[in-house]
């Protein structure tokens, strides 16, 4: 009965202390989100606006991309269009090579994760330095992000502290105070900012009317990455374009409040031109997005602004961790994005949802990730990836429920099952017995009791 | 598209709300009086500062982001003093349009002093985005408090990669 | 007003007393209620598992059996939500039952507008807000929404004399049942259920109550396995107490 996700989740759940901390950490983010949203009487209205702006942009994407490109080019920005990950990586490398770049500092970008840009560049001799603290920690530990906003939050201060000692980043042995470790990382990264020849950032929003590439960070690392080197590369999925500043205001207000409960990220940086004497490149990446927008049942997944709120509220994510999912983005939105990307490969995540729909209610762009998962479940048969044992169960139910005489006979006799000893039920084949005692069947089902009662009434 | 654009929350006293939010996001706030000497206020706020960087008229500084040879020369700045533009009451954001050759002064300085005109404080981001402008440098940034991170066990630490402390002076 | 009563398959088999309490309660409130014969399941278990196509015959049958009633009342939120939200996608023709189907608490609160109930229930209960009741039927305001919180289950329970009504911390976090989710993701489901039960117990309640026996069944299974000292009752049983 197990899926990719359920097997990994089982492993994760073997460490109850870690699970408890993980659950508490992300639930506290959900609470902070609630508190921030409660400050704004227009909160639900904001979500509706965000949803409609994204819907509008998705249905007029070609026009807005053209407008965005024109705005950028007017300001001397060089715009590229990459159809897939391979082309994107080649383009980034091409730009770096032509500027003889040895070291690239970058801020957080889920797109570069998606395209696996870092290994591509490293293999070709580029020293790629992640500058977001969480991402830097993961890079040094050779780990993948476990959350899109707080990528390294699953690690403990001791794990990080020991690694810092080993790498010579921290000097005081045994001092694993987060403030101290953060200061060590700051000093260490400062050197990289000083001598990197290029900076790369993602892009949260691309404003078509003005050509602004808007990057939201708390650390200021996107600005550090792009204010010293002369070369700035922006990596951006085509769905990130929005019409204008009025729209930007809506998303800027929603993003941080939804993700971390802050009223704003510390930095909302808006780039529309290269530094004096420098060069700015924007690479617009499709990598399957055009097909996703054309998908009638699931295009809304691309309304996502990557705030992480759906993960924070997801009771399954909180108790199974980011590494239990096969796609690099975990949680409800990750289940959906993985299915859009490669349904056969990522079907094993579709079980990771109890359909509680809390994510539908927190999502600032009304992506409805949980309802999307319900729909993906319905399509697993077409990919041949449905859970076969579960299908047998469902088929069995269908036969019983559709044939009243079988149903009736079963229910009249089912209380016999109550006499099966518990020890016989506690077998591997019965996943219910992992956490539960079997429910007891009634001696007489309701429909029998009812019939008898009615007959008695007639006789009276 | 939605037919009507968002209006957004309005506050009875935008200045008070801005001050409150600035504190929430980790700023110090000084309300300057008409006869206050700004240089003295900065000196009092950062008595140990040795290297000050600014291109704001009338501000005493050892380094000028307009005239340094390269961005790296601003490393080691104790306090950078910047002229802010629009400030936002709902979230403590201040719009810093690039008005200097080396914008890194806004990030590389250990501490940042942002000067804000009282009459430039607006209610919310909808109003702010109607009012901000870009200079010819083609870069601007809303800053809401010091650089921060909670990447290690969710412990909030000020001063990740950019300024560790921010003081807003309302004039 | 003619009301058709639908008793879901698992209530029929495992919790017939919930059906009895519901019927008794409706009768007491002078509702013209009918329990049509030969009913089984609404089709939800297969659909939630990813086999909605296996639910279409059951949906047709449900529509056929109940379309002429003024209301269809179901003492189970997830089944009522399934009919209301999913049937319009499953049935490829105009259908009546999604518009007419209400969950028991909704029916009492919104249709009958019950303002008093005889009988006392001198116990401390913790209300289990089932996800589909919260987020599809809005029996209570979802905690995600920034609106003034209301809760129809709590309001009704408070009509009973002597009752103390509590809600757990994280009042509408999922208990982890989710139909086949509980067997496919047994470990996560059990972890969710265990956390949920503990939060209910932390309220000091003697009884966990709710309007979905499937969530209650899941938690009851966990409670029995761990011998936790807490009991379960469907809302209908409490509302019908002492009638």
UniProtKB/TrEMBL annotation, chain A:
One record GO biological process: lactate metabolic process
InterPro entries tied to this protein: 4Fe4S_Fe-S-bd, 4Fe4S_Fe_S_CS, FTHF_cligase-like_sf, Helical_ferredxn, LUD_dom, LutB/LldF, NagB/RpiA_transferase-like
Highest rank taxon of the organism: Bacteria
Pfam hit, one: LUD_dom
GO molecular function list: 4 iron, 4 sulfur cluster binding; metal ion binding
Keywords: 4Fe-4S, Electron transport, Iron, Iron-sulfur, Metal-binding, Repeat, Transport
Protein known as: L-lactate dehydrogenase complex protein LldF
Lineage, broadest ranks: Bacteria, Pseudomonadati, Bacteroidota, Bacteroidia, Bacteroidales
TrEMBL record, chain B:
InterPro entries noted in UniProt: FTHF_cligase-like_sf (IPR024185), LUD_dom (IPR003741), NagB/RpiA_transferase-like (IPR037171)
PANTHER family per UniProt: LACTATE UTILIZATION PROTEIN C
All residue ranges annotated as the LUD domain in the record: 71-171
Source organism phylogeny: Bacteria, Pseudomonadati, Bacteroidota, Bacteroidia, Bacteroidales
UniProt cross-references to Gene3D superfamilies, sorted A to Z: NagB/RpiA/CoA transferase-like (3.40.50.10420)
Source organism superkingdom: Bacteria
Pfam families for this protein: LUD_dom (PF02589)
Cross-referenced SUPFAM superfamilies: NagB/RpiA/CoA transferase-like
Protein name, as recorded: L-lactate dehydrogenase complex protein LldG
UniProtKB/TrEMBL annotation, chain C:
GO CC term, one of those recorded: cytosol
Residues covered by the Cysteine-rich domain: 3-82, 125-220
Organism expressing this protein natively: Prevotella jejuni
One term of GO molecular function: oxidoreductase activity
Pfam families with a match to the protein in the record: CCG (PF02754)
Listed name of the protein: L-lactate dehydrogenase complex protein LldE
């Amino acid at each position: 009965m197990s899926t990719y996700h359920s097997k990994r989740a089982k492993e994760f759940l073997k460490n109850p202390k870690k699970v408890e901390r993980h659950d508490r950490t992300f639930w506290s983010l959900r609470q902070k989100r609630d508190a921030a949203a409660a400050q704004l009487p227009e909160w639900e209205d904001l979500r509706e606006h965000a949803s409609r702006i994204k819907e509008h942009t998705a249905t007029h994407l070609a026009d807005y991309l053209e407008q965005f490109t024109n705005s950028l080019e007017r300001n001397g920005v060089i715009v590229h269009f990459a159809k897939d990950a391979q082309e994107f990586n080649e383009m980034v490398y091409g730009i770096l090579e032509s500027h003889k770049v040895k070291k690239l500092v970058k801020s957080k970008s889920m797109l570069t994760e998606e395209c696996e840009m870092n290994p591509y560049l490293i293999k070709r001799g580029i020293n790629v330095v992640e500058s977001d603290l969480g991402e830097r920690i993961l890079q040094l530990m050779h780990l993948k992000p476990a959350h899109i906003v707080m990528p390294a939050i699953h690690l403990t201060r001791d794990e990080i502290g020991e690694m810092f000692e080993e790498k010579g980043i921290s000097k005081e042995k045994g001092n694993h105070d987060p403030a101290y470790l953060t200061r060590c990382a700051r000093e260490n990264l400062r050197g990289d900012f000083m001598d990197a020849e290029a900076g790369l950032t993602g892009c949260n929003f691309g404003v078509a009317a003005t050509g602004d590439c808007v990057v939201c960070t708390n650390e200021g690392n996107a600005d550090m990455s792009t204010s010293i080197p002369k070369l700035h590369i922006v990596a951006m999925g085509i769905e990130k374009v929005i019409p204008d500043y009025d729209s930007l205001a809506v998303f800027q207000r929603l993003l941080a409040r939804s993700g971390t409960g802050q009223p704003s990220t510390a930095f909302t940086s808006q780039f529309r031109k290269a530094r004096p004497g420098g060069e700015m490149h924007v690479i617009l990446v499709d990598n399957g997005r055009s097909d996703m927008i054309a998908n009638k049942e699931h295009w809304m997944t691309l309304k996502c602004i990557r705030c992480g709120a759906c993960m924070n509220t997801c009771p399954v994510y909180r108790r199974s961790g980011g590494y239990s999912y096969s796609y690099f983005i975990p949680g409800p939105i990750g289940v959906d994005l993985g299915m859009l990307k490669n349904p056969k490969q990522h079907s094993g995540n579709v079980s990771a949802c109890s359909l509680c729909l809390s994510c539908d209610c927190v999502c600032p762009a009304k992506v409805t990730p949980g309802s999307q998962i319900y729909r993906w479940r319905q399509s697993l048969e077409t990919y041949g990836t449905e859970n076969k044992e579960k299908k047998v169960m469902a088929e069995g139910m269908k036969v019983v429920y559709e044939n009243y005489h079988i149903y009736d006979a079963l229910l009249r006799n089912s209380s016999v099952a109550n006499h099966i000893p518990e020890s016989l039920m506690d077998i591997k084949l019965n996943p219910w017995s992992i956490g539960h005692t079997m429910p007891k069947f009634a001696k007489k089902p309701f429909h029998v009791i009812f019939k008898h009662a009615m007959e008695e009434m007639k006789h009276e | 598209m939605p037919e009507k654009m968002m209006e957004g929350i309005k506050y009875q006293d935008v200045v008070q709300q801005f001050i409150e939010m600035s504190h929430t996001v980790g700023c110090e706030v000084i309300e300057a009086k008409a006869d206050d000497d700004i240089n003295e206020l900065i000196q009092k706020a950062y008595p140990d500062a040795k290297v000050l960087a600014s291109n704001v008229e009338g501000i005493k500084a050892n380094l000028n982001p307009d005239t340094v040879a390269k961005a790296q020369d601003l490393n080691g700045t104790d306090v950078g003093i910047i002229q802010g533009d629009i400030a936002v009451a709902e979230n403590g954001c201040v719009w810093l349009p690039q008005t200097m050759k080396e914008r890194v002064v806004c990030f590389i300085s250990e501490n940042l002093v942002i000067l804000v005109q009282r009459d430039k404080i607006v209610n919310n981001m909808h109003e702010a985005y109607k009012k901000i402008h870009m200079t010819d440098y083609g870069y601007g940034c809303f800053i809401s408090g010091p650089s921060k991170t909670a990447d290690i066990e969710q412990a909030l630490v000020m001063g990740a990669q950019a300024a560790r402390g921010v003081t807003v002076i309302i004039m | 007003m003619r009301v058709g009563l639908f008793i879901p398959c698992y209530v029929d088999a495992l919790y017939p007393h919930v059906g009895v309490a519901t019927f008794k309660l409706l009768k007491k409130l002078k509702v013209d209620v009918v329990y049509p014969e030969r009913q089984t399941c609404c089709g939800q278990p297969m659909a939630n598992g990813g086999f909605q196509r296996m639910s279409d015959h059951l949906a047709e049958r449900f529509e056929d059996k109940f379309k002429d009633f003024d209301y269809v009342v179901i003492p189970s939120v997830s089944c009522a939500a399934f009919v209301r939200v999913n049937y319009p996608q499953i049935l490829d023709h105009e259908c009546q039952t999604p518009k007419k189907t209400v969950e028991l608490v909704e029916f009492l609160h919104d249709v009958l507008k019950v303002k008093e109930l005889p009988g006392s229930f001198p116990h401390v209960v913790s209300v289990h807000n089932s996800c589909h009741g919260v987020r599809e039927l809005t029996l209570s305001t979802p905690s995600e929404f920034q609106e003034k919180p209301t809760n129809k289950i709590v309001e009704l329970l408070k009509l009973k004399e002597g009752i103390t009504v509590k809600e757990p911390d994280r009042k509408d976090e999922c208990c982890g049942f989710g139909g086949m989710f509980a067997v496919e993701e047994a470990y996560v489901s059990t972890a969710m259920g265990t956390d949920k039960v503990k939060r209910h117990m932390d309220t000091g309640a003697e009884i966990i109550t709710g309007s979905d026996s499937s969530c209650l069944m899941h938690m009851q299974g966990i409670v029995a396995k761990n011998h936790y000292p807490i009991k379960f009752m469907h809302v209908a049983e409490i509302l019908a107490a002492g009638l």
